[in-house]
Amino acid sequence: MADQKHTYAYRAINDEGVTLTGDIEAESAEQARQALLGRGLMPTEVTRRDGPLKSKRFQKFFQKPVTYKQIILFSKQFRTLFNAGVSITQLLGILQTQTENPTLKAATADIAQQVSTGGTLYNAFRSHPDIFSPLYCSMIRAGEFSGSMGDVLDRLTYLLEHENKIRNDVKSALRYPKIVLITLAGAFFFLLNWVVPSFAKLFVNAKIELPWPTRMALAMNTALSDYWYLLLAAAVGMFFGVRWWIRTSRGRYLWARTLLTLPLVGKVVQMSIMARFAAIFSILQRSGVSILDSLDILSETINNAALEREFSTIKEKLRSGQGIAEPLSTARYFTPLTINMVAVGEGAGNLETMLEDLAAHYDEEVEYAVGEMTEAIGPILIVVLAAVVGFFALAIFMPMWDMTKLASGGR
To answer: Does 27 reside within a domain?
Structure first.
């Protein structure tokens, strides 16, 4: 029977003299040293961690999450060191020592290992999908592919900061609605489970016919009281069922298409996608990457299944000899402005300049779209609140009016 694998913490020196630290899985300390030597690293210290190797999923459960701000800081340091002329291997070693988050530190160490043994930077980053998004990895790929990593890192840092600002704006816009909805849900359950049943007993004793709002409220009360476990199981099952469905090929496509067509939200999503498309496409074109190769990278970067299908259709038409503007004009989810700007840029021979202007325009449009969504949420909440309050008012006061009529008629 083979020995059980354990995790070993190591300190090693690479060919450039940079000290790297990290973890490695092996059956013994000697096997760990040999594995490090095979990666081109000279181990100076190998220490076994207590206990056998846990499953990766179990380990991830206890890992400290990497925040968006930490990713932005990591990217800024990466850009600064790269633009200063530091080699990738040495750069990753410096980032590893500067990073405080243990999860990000371990990921940086693993990336450094893969790169030092001949792996590409793109594949190394892609092996940590819990930390680095498809956008991040695809931008790294674009930098490696085009040979303009400095420009790509500048744009990547800008994109991350801009998206972080949009995230914060959306969170701020949704903070008040969340409070209102939570309060409304609490009031709904309180009225449904305590207030309405108390009044219902009074109405039944008065022997009056209950109106439909009251009967509906009592039916909901009965369902919650007697079948709460079934409702909970159905809600949990639906939640995980939808999550599973979204991960399927058709589910991803339909979900992406739904996001693009939703009122308010759809405009924010579409403007964000157009901004990404224009920004990354401009970098690739300025770096001399062919349009076909650019579309492959963009398909991964946009991370939207509906757009991925459109990119596939556009690539087929490009292979038949058409330019980018004509097949783009038949795409469903590209805005008319994007189509026209690309057509003008392609015709004038300055496509990358047009794309840069387009990216700047859509960066502003995203902020406007978020503002419009924020302004629209208030009236929608008022309507929902009025509907709930009106429903319970009818459920309680309509029978009371009937009782008043009976009392008046009995005099």
So the answer is: yes
